């Protein structure tokens, strides 16, 4: 907990370390009521910092120092200084060895950072600054060391003892205990250290590398989960193959291990050779995990595996560079998932997520550049901006360089910096050097916060047969009050003729066509505050298709009318933009309904939306997953994000009205599709493949519309699906549909049957909590409070907190934003309680309250009041303090 004024850390203050650690030798003695950690650090003065021997300041928190020795000299109390964050000693020579022994308490560590217990097993989470809760160390990513780790524990309770690298020995010890030693030959920063001890079983496989050598693959789980590892194993092997083929990157140790733990603050962690995963990101089988969960497992397994190169072999110099590894790795895993499944659908999902959540972050009090300039608590900077916007920045690099140029750049980056701790500038420099380009201006994407706006206008000159597009870019102010200079915005576009065909694109001044036809889709680089591009040889006024594939993370506006959007929905050759046109049409129609609701008028839906969706639904040649995406109206959170002042009730009423109209007017088409797809599901066994995902996604969105009709045969169909399906995707959808329906008796019965059947599977129970927490029927808060008393719920498990509290505050907007402020009070109480248990989780759950500026004055006052109450509640963790104080500033 924070005792003094929290310190702000600045990027501009970065200095290389005074000392280096060449070798780290650790011995852990695990006991039920404490753990002893003995560390021997082989150290030397950092030659880059010049002569002299300044004091050595080691990071350490919540450690009880038992002994310290410098070379062979035992240190007395007068020989060192200790405070709550550090141990300071005075080296006597350029090369020396430091020995320490400390006592720690993993058994009572509820923050889940450092060494802690998840259920009956010991595990670690060291990123970003958790290693300092294990031993005194230079806990910063530019200090890279080899590690040897010995773990000693009771044989019976902890038969499996793991750490990074290769196993080099094991054997029995006294008192029913045993030991194992692991050696990691690759130098790494402490944040990649891992240790696991428990009664674990494993699923095993091998992967044969391009070079012909085998790697042993193991996924460790508690015995009851052995039957849920196959999907992760298949995903791992696909990831290894893909990184060889697409990036030329081979795995570098002879063993790769994944361990699944139930209590974990994030999704997973890329510790060298020993990835530790939230069980939600490993375990998946048809009966217990949805299609979305299967895809998440595939994506997260890939993400952590890809870190072995983008993160571990080449790591970050300091935590301001976090996006160096995270943005790049998210981009890599997104491309992997696109290759394994449907590319367009993956892009749609990612963009919808970015625009709803990252854009909101970038417009709020916690807005920061992809490479932040300062922070109080680094755990607060594992953000959508660093991850998702960071990935968009890497995607733009590839768009500007082309696939081959990008590969040349990444080859140079890995070759040049292997074994180093580097910066985002080094990444860009490799891209520049490999391609002979200058990205000086492009790098503003790393240093300037905020989402750029790009306003586009057109002019057609019939006499000259030219068509001009003028782009005006601007970036709204962010809390740093920094001046914003123009970004480099790659805009991929096409021009459609009256028949919907793409026109050949030739800019004025470009030489007459060579032998080849000019391209029909091309990337323009917008680099000025205002810039015009003129196309020549355009015989009639075209319709532009702008920002194809969402080629830059900007808010683009062009004055399309609804008929033009319907035309693009049908004819655009870019699948992403067909969906985008549908979304823009829906936004226009919904905003009109929101206005009607606010003026107290009867709601009247523009029929063109129904016509457009009916056309999509009736087109058998479209990918069903695309149909499902197009049928999904923009979410309430997105409608909130694009509002000046969000009217929660009007947004909800408008969207529900539109859904009801769609359900009624397209009932027959939806019903036909539903029945055909349900029949296909009934007659084929579950497969986790893109084609099956697609079929079920359309089936399920159709069902959720159909149930709005309240017709008895739809209820019957829902119950049939709920009871007789063979997979969690269909079962959970049926449950969610019932939970949101007026059929009280059926709802209660289904919820009870589901809980009874799955009570021993915590991940499935998370789904059961979420579905209820997200239900927008009145009385949401009371339901959530009641569910908190359920025996399967605990605040100590982050997945449970996310499933119930996160789903309520993030997805159940009408209930959370109840006008009496009850939702806000509830969340603030929880944050205060969580602050003492798990600061990282407390801080993340706070996010909805930080968006107070989006709402009407009455709600603003209530939300601010709760933030102030949190601030005054006592000793706050640096995590919660930073978010609350910045939100109120
Ligand atoms: N590096 C992890 C990832 O792949 C992030 C992570 C896992 C993390 N656990 C954490 C970050 C705990 C902070 C705290 O994305
Ligand atoms: Zn990552």
From TrEMBL:
- Key word GTP-binding present in the record? no
**Annotated ranges, domain Peptidase M1 membrane alanine aminopeptidase:** 233-445
The keyword Metal-binding belongs to this UniProt entry's keyword annotation: yes
* Co-factor(s): Zn(2+)
What keyword terms does UniProt attach to this protein? Aminopeptidase, Hydrolase, Metal-binding, Metalloprotease, Protease, Zinc
Residues in Peptidase M1 alanyl aminopeptidase C-terminal domain copies: 563-889
Entry EC no(s): 3.4.11.2
Q: What class of enzyme is it?
A: hydrolase
Spell out the CDD domains in the cross-references: M1_APN (cd09600)
User: Any idea what job this protein has?
Assistant: Aminopeptidase N is involved in the degradation of intracellular peptides generated by protein breakdown during normal growth as well as in response to nutrient starvation.
Give the protein's recorded name. Aminopeptidase N
Tell me the organism: Pseudomonas juntendi
């Amino acid at each position: 907990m924070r005792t003094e004024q929290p310190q702000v850390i600045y990027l501009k203050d970065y200095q290389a370390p005074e000392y280096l650690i060449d070798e780290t030798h650790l011995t852990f003695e695990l006991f039920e009521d404490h753990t002893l950690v003995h560390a021997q650090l082989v150290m030397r003065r950092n030659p880059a910092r010049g002569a002299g021997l300044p004091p050595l300041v080691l990071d350490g928190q919540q450690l009880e120092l038992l002994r310290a020795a410098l070379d062979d000299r035992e240190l007395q109390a007068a020989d060192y200084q200790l405070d709550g964050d550090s141990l300071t000693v005075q080296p006597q020579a350029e090369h020396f060895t430091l020995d320490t022994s400390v006592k720690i308490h993993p058994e009572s560590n509820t923050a889940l950072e450092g060494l802690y217990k998840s259920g009956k097993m010991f595990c670690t989470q060291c990123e970003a600054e958790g290693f300092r809760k294990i031993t005194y160390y230079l806990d910063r990513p530019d200090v890279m060391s080899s590690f040897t780790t010995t773990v000693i524990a009771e044989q019976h309770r902890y038969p499996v003892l793991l750490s990074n690298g290769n196993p080099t020995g094991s054997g029995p010890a006294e008192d029913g205990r045993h030991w194992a030693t692991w050696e990691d030959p690759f130098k790494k920063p402490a944040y990649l250290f891992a240790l696991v001890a428990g009664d674990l079983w494993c699923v095993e496989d091998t992967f044969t590398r391009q070079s012909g050598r085998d790697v042993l693959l193991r996924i460790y789980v508690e015995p009851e989960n052995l039957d849920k590892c196959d999907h992760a194993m298949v995903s791992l092997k696909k990831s290894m193959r893909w990184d060889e083929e697409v990036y030329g990157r081979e795995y570098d140790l002879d063993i790769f291990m994944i361990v699944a733990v139930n209590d974990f603050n994030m999704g997973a962690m890329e510790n060298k050779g020993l990835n530790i995963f939230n069980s939600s990101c490993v375990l998946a089988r048809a009966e217990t995990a949805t299609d979305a969960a299967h895809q998440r497992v595939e994506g997260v397994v890939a993400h952590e595996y890809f870190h072995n190169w983008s993160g571990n072999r080449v790591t970050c110099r300091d935590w301001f560079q976090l996006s160096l590894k995270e943005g790049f790795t998210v981009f890599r895993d997104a491309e992997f998932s696109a290759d394994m499944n449907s590319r367009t659908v993956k892009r749609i999902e990612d963009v919808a997520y970015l625009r709803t959540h990252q854009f909101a972050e970038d417009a709020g009090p916690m807005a920061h550049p992809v490479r932040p300039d300062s922070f109080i608590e680094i755990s607060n900077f594992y953000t959508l901006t660093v991850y998702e916007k960071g990935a968009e920045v890497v995607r733009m690099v590839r768009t500007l360089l082309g696939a081959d140029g990008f590969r040349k750049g990444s080859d140079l980056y890995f070759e040049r910096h292997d074994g180093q701790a580097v910066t985002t500038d080094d990444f860009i420099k490799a891209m520049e050097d490999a391609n002979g380009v200058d990205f000086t201006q492009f790098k503003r994407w790393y240093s300037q916060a905020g989402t750029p706006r790009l306003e586009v206008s057109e002019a057609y000159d019939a006499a000259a047969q030219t068509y001009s597009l003028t782009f005006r870019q601007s970036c709204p102010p962010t809390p740093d009050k920094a001046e914003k200079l123009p970004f480099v915005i790659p805009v991929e576009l096409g021009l459609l003729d009256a028949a919907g065909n793409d026109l050949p694109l030739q800019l004025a001044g470009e030489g007459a066509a060579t032998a080849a036809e000019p391209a029909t889709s091309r990337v323009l680089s917008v680099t000025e505050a205002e810039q015009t591009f003129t196309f020549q040889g355009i015989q009639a006024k075209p319709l532009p298709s702008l920002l194809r594939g969402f080629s830059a993370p900007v808010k683009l506006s062009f004055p399309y009318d609804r008929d033009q959007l319907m035309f693009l929905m049908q004819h655009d050759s870019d699948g992403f933009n067909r969906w985008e046109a549908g979304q823009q049409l829906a936004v226009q129609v919904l905003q009109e309904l929101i206005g009607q609701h606010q003026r107290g008028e009867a709601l009247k839906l523009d029929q063109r939306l129904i016509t457009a969706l009916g056309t999509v639904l009736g087109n058998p040649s479209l990918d069903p997953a695309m149909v499902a995406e197009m049928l999904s109206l923009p979410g309430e959170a997105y409608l909130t994000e694009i509002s000046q002042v969000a009217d929660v009730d009007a947004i909800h009423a408008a969207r529900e009205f539109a859904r009801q109209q769609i359900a009624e007017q397209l009932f027959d088409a939806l019903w036909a599709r539903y029945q055909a797809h349900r029949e296909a599901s009934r007659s084929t066994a579950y497969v986790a493949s893109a084609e099956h995902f697609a079929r079920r996604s359309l089936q399920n969105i159709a069902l959720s519309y159909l149930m709005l009709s309240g017709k008895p045969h739809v209820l019957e169909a829902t119950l049939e699906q709920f009871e007789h399906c063979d997979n969690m995707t269909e079962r959970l959808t049926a449950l969610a549909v019932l939970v949101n329906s007026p059929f009280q008796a059926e709802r209660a019965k289904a919820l009870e049957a589901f809980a009874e059947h799955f009570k021993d599977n915590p991940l499935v129970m998370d789904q059961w909590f979420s579905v209820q927490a997200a239900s927008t029927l009145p009385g949401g808060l009371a339901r959530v409070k009641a569910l908190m008393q359920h025996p399967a719920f605990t605040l100590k498990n982050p997945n449970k907190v996310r499933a119930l509290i996160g789903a309520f505050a993030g997805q159940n907007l009408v209930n959370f934003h109840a006008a009496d402020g009850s939702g806000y009070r509830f969340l603030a109480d929880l944050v205060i309680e969580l602050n003492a248990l798990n600061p990282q989780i407390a801080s993340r759950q706070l996010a909805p309250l930080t968006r107070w500026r989006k709402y009407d004055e009455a709600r603003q006052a209530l939300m601010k009041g709760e933030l102030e109450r949190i601030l005054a509640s006592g000793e706050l963790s640096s995590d919660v303090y930073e978010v609350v104080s910045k939100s109120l500033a």
